[in-house]
Design a protein that fits this description.
Helices cover about 0% and strands about 45% of the residues. By secondary structure, it is mainly β.
């Protein structure tokens, strides 16, 4: 899905993704610091060759809005770190 289909996820799949997240540490003993397993729920916006793009906050599709004000929040995950993707049934 390229940029021309970016808003196509409004009719897309709602998913729950379990993934391995990196760990940042600063000025602490590094022993015991390791990646952690996290999860996120959102709309699958893009399924790239090596990544998934998930949007968890977006404007309501019920109100038209100019493209200049279109803003989303989400996460891009490397597929090599994704443990599980399941569709959320509602």
């Amino acid at each position: 899905m390229g940029s021309e289909g970016h808003r196509a996820y409004e009719n897309g799949r709602l998913v729950r993704v379990k993934y391995i997240d990196h760990a940042i540490f600063l000025n602490v003993p590094s022993r015991g610091v390791e990646p952690t397993v996290r999860e996120s729920v959102g709309w699958l916006v893009e399924d790239g060759e090596c990544y998934l793009k998930i949007v968890w906050d977006r404007r309501s599709s019920s109100k038209p809005i100019s493209k200049a004000k279109e803003r989303d929040s989400g996460i891009v995950l490397m597929k090599s770190l994704v443990l599980k993707v399941e569709e959320v049934k509602g």
